[in-house]
Every structure is written in C-alpha cells, then in structure tokens.
Amino acid sequence: xxxxxxxxxxxxxxxxxxxxxxxxxxxxxxxxxxxxxxxxxxxxxxxxxxxxxxxxxxxxxxxxxxxxxxxxxxxxxxxxxxxxxxxxxxxxxxxxxxxxxxxxxxxxxxxxxxxxxxxxxxxxxxxxxxxxxxxxxxxxxxxxxxxxxxxxxxxxxxxxxxxxxxxxxxxxxxxxxxxxxxxxxxx
Length: 187
What we know:
The chain is an alpha/beta fold and 187 residues long. The chain has helices at 28-43, 57-62, 81-86, 92-98, 103-116, 163-184; strands at residues 5-8, 13-14, 22-23, 47-51, 72-77, 121-127, 141-147, 152-159. It starts with a strand and ends with a helix.
C-alpha cells in the first residue's frame, strides 16, 4: 500500500447533475470520470464502490454515464461503522483498533468491495466531511483507495471547504486514483 498527501481547496460552486452542489474546478470531475470509465472499457474491466462520507456520490456519478452497466458492478454505502464490516468486509478488529477514518480502513474497504461484488477493481472513500471533527479527526480528512488484482493504493486528502466541497473532492480524487491504479495494475 502506498500513500500520498493531496490538498484541494473548494472552488466556486457550479450546478451539477445531482441535487448536492459541486464545488470544484470546472470540468475537473468530468475529466476524471471520463478517463476512469475509458480505461475500464479499454481493459474490459469492472468496478465496485464502497462509500462512507460520499454517501453514494461515486456510484451516482458513475451511473450518469450512458452504457456504464457494462463496467459498473454496483456499490455499497457504508456510512455506519458496523456496516463497513458486515457489508464491505472490513475486519471488525481493524475497525476497533484504528476506527473508520484510517488508511488501513480505506484499503480494506476497496479490497472488500472488489471481492464481495466480483469486480476487477474496487474504489473506496472514508473520511470526515464536516463541518465538525469526528472522533478527533479533523473535517476534510479523507482517505480514498483503489484495489486491483495485484495492487492497492491509498491516498490521504486534506480537503477544505464545506461538506459539499469535501464530498465532491473525494469523488474526483477516488476516480483519479482508480485511473492511476489501472495504468499501473491493468489486471
């Protein structure tokens, strides 16, 4: 597992396809989405998602793409800590030891959803969208993970802005990480 830090600031709000506002750089999420989906289709690969703080935004973003059913297996929204174990396969002892917002938890979410949903790749998001800290973890602290057949990547993000900015920044980051993983671990 490798880890890198990234910082993203909230950008001016622009309306999106979903009810939650997107605070992002114009077209940056669309570019990340297009790149990720193109790589999946080129490789005839599939993806599954495990989402906590994003609450289904990754899956909703993917399913906005016509024809995505050829590559998107499905996803689980595991907002509650116990569901990370029961639905996404995160070991309970790991959750007890490190909590829900941790790089090892993100790693286990991506691996677990990949295995449980029978996908080539798994994507995961976990973190604190804010506005307040949670269990001593600052708002804007997010871990995104991508799991492939031979490799797992986890990235720590320190995002700023309101809840919408943190959540949309997480969506964009996990799609970019998934695309990076596919270029390194094509399955």
